[in-house]
Amino acid sequence: MDVDAYSSVITVEVNGTAHTLTVDHRRVLLDLLREDLGLTGTKKGCDQGQCGACTVLVDGRRMNSCLLPAVALDGSAVTTVEGLADGDGLHPLQRAFLDRDAFQCGYCTPGQLCSAVGAIAEAEAGHPSHVTGADVPAGRPVPLTRDEIRERLSGNLCRCGAYPHIVDAVEDVLT
User: Using alpha carbons only, what angle is made at residue 116 by residues 40 and 127, rounded to the nearest 5 degrees?
Assistant: First the structure.
């Protein structure tokens, strides 16, 4: 692996598989996923971290991959939309999105799915959101009401306006 002053060798686990790569210091995770690893499920939307189309899970936390320098992820575990499924079986959220018709064009769907998986985990871990009531004890699981779901997914834009169906799909996996 050729390393120069502008690159480093990193090892990152993506969807359960370790990859050792020489990465240019300016390369972001989104480009590494799409161009180097051929995982095109993660979408490039705004390239500024505002639309959420590029959302993936890094060590279980949702992140905008268009903003993350790949070199900073050495030793991290990344899950993309391709890694949500269990073999040939869909992740429950993927199934719920299909059942609820929670997409139209589908461009935002991979980011919506990864964000929803992360949001559910954050609520279960007791991380409050802007709309979490003061009556929820600190560190206790946060009940995911429709308002909580909307708030937690507000960083993911859907130009088609499938928001009500997306919230329905998330609710379906919670019950």
Answer: 130
Is the backbone of residue 75 left (phi > 0), alpha (psi -120 to 50) or beta?
left
Q: What is the pLDDT of residues 74-105, one digit of tens each?
A: 999 999 999 999 888 999 999 999 999 999 99
AA letter at 83: G
Token pair 């993506």 is found at: 14
d(CA 2, CA 80): 27
Contact 119, 156 (CB under 8 A): no
Structure letter (DSSP) for residue 36: I
Nearest to 63 by CA among 151, 134, 140, 155: 155
At 86, is the secondary structure helix, strand, or coil?
A: strand
> Strand 61-64 to strand 7-14: parallel, antiparallel, or no bridges (unpaired)?
unpaired
pTM across the whole model: 0.94
| Averaged pLDDT score across all residues of the chain | 95
Residues 65, 34: Cα–Cα separation, whole Å: 11
* Beta-strand pair 77-79/7-14: parallel
